[in-house]
Amino acid sequence: MKLATKNPLNQRTKSPVALTQLGFGGAPLGNLYRKIEDADAQATLDAAWDAGIRYFDTAPQYGLGRSEMRFSEALTRFDTDALTLSTKVGRVLEDCAPEDVTPEAFVDVPQKRIVFDFTYEGIMRSYEDSIARLKSDQIDMLLLHDIDAGTRGQTFEDNNLRQLFSQGGYRALSELRDAGKISAIGAGVNTWQICERLLGEADFDGFLLAGRYTLLEQDPLDSFLPLCVKRDVGIILGGPYNSGILATGAVAGAHYDYAPAPHEILQRVQKLGEVCAAHNTPLITAALQFPLGHAAVKTVIPGASTPDEVRQNVAIFEERIPQALWSDLKSEGLIRADAPTPSEPNHVA
């Protein structure tokens, strides 16, 4: 079963897993970088629903369960037959002493620590714990969370893959999918290379790829995205702003890939912004819409922590971009000449 865009004007594949072109990333609702009050979190989710967004993503890591728990309240209000929900597996939350809490970038979190476990038992426990926090079995997609090396090294990745394929993790995902408890399986990661590696090993439906196919990065065009099209594998594009710099522009303190942006990135973003300005188009608008030009990309999911941020995302997502902008970005060598670009205005629902 594959991933498909829900919007009937832009239907690319037929699938029981329907995705609105604009989705909702649930990391901010886990108190990412700052505390959000419960009422504000619910108002933000309501704003997304009212705007026509029907695809929502969350994860146990986001606030050590807080994001999922906030989704649980929203699920009692939303029409779950019209909603598509994904969460992630492979990070099990365990009770711990206060000094062992692993909040990463989240604040005001429950007293939990994260244990990576991609074995059969780990996948099943992660799935069942998510159901308990969501207070619902309304989970359409399960995504292996950060199974790639990341900053933890190649040994970490190799061990995770060994657990997945030799210790039953993939079997657990397959059993859940075959039993109809979920409709799709994939991975939520920050590197396209691990997705390509996973496709070489087994059958996956889609991937949530964060920050790796953007106005600043198009390396997946060489092999990975063509493979996705060939295999009918859908991409959920997270991190369209490369950790912020494509939203803020080349300002002091801008972040790229979760760290202060290096000089060469700042220079390139400055040039991207200048071309966009020449076409009366904000850089953030081009950044949000660009990924959907590729047939493999089914939805883009910026995060939001307030109703106003949701409405801003919708407004820039639906703004019309002149085709000459894309042509100029290519002629200036700022995006690849072979990068497909959007040809029609986007619509959320």
TrEMBL record:
The record lists the membrane-crossing segments as: none
Q: Which part of the chain is the NADP-dependent oxidoreductase domain? A: 22-330
User: Which InterPro entries does the annotation name?
Assistant: AKR (IPR020471), NAD(P)_OxRdtase_dom_sf (IPR036812), NADP_OxRdtase_dom (IPR023210)
Please list the GO terms describing molecular function.
oxidoreductase activity
Q: What is this protein called?
A: D-threo-aldose 1-dehydrogenase
Source species, domain of life: Bacteria
Q: Name one Pfam family in it.
A: Aldo_ket_red
